[in-house]
Design a protein that fits this description.
By secondary structure, the chain is mostly helical. It is built from 10 helices and 2 strands, in the order H-E-E-H-H-H-H-H-H-H-H-H.
């Protein structure tokens, strides 16, 4: 009987969830796409709540109108999709797309880069804020506060799709993915969902509502960038690198995700360290 308890724990079964929620003829709704849509809508709704709460802003002066965010959501969606797809093509699989350029438009097959999507949204925020005469860093702060929810949902969708799985492991919660070979692996997608999604959202929520850091432009945005970068670098130690890239140094570390995330950590630290409280609005 004692020998039974010395046996290694069995891996957890992979939940056989269809990546397609519903399909009507050629039209298919994927969990992956729903994750992006729900994430964008949540960030929009959450940002509107932030900019209508006078307690969070210097002297109760609201920095923008909720209607501004209604218009910005279209800009954000375009920035996420174009930037995310362009980033994946350039950073992760350029030779393939040079050979098959039409595959660039097959976004339903997956292949989005967070780092590219971030650059796309930053460009969209910069152009939109200049057009509406809204402080760019303030727009970045209120948008980034709700982004982790979408990140978490997309990582869960990656898990459902059995993609971006982790390195081989014998931990009790390891999973044998259907397309991951005859190995049990870290469910690294769920690690990312927890850190980039839930934990990062709660940290930013603490900064916005308890520490009132929206009164200090670029601090919340810097915390988001730094927090994502640190989370991503940590999880990369458990995540299998993209097959077409592999490890960029040695045989067990330094991945493209680490390289792209390191400048984010540095930029985020710079933003938080140099952030200063916004000047109090002058009385009329």
């Amino acid at each position: 009987m004692s020998e039974y308890f010395l046996l290694p724990l069995a891996s957890l079964p992979f939940p056989n969830i269809d990546p397609v929620i519903v399909q009507i003829g050629p039209l298919a709704v994927h969990w992956y796409g729903v994750g992006y849509i729900v994430g964008i809508l949540f960030a929009w709704w959450y940002a509107k709540r932030l900019v209508t709460n006078p307690r969070l802003w210097p002297d109760g002066h609201l920095p923008m109108k909720p209607e501004d965010l209604d218009d910005f959501i279209v800009w954000a969606a375009i920035g996420v999709v174009l930037g995310g797809r362009t980033g994946y093509v350039l950073f992760y699989d350029l030779p393939r797309y040079i050979a098959h350029p039409l595959d660039i438009f097959a976004v339903w097959q997956g292949g989005m880069s967070f780092h590219g999507g971030l650059l796309g949204v930053i460009l969209a925020m910069t152009l939109f804020s200049l057009k509406r005469r809204i402080p760019t860093w303030t727009l970045f702060d209120v948008v980034s506060a709700g982004v982790p929810v979408g990140l978490g949902l997309v990582r869960v969708a990656n898990f459902i799709n059995s993609e971006l799985w982790g390195r081989p492991s014998d931990v009790p919660w390891a999973i044998e993915f259907p397309n991951g070979g005859p190995f049990t692996r870290h469910p690294s997608q769920l690690y990312e969902a927890l850190l980039e999604g839930l934990v990062l959202f709660l940290v930013l929520r603490f900064l916005t509502h308890s520490r009132l850091k929206l009164k200090t432009p670029r601090f919340v945005g810097g915390a988001f960038i730094c927090g994502y970068g640190l989370s991503r670098i940590f999880v990369e130690f458990f995540r299998e690198p993209d097959q077409q890239l592999g490890y960029l140094l040695g045989t067990s570390w330094l991945t493209m995700g680490m390289i792209l995330s390191t400048p984010m950590v540095l930029a985020g630290i710079w933003a938080m360290v140099t952030a200063k409280p916004a000047p109090q609005p002058r009385a009329a």
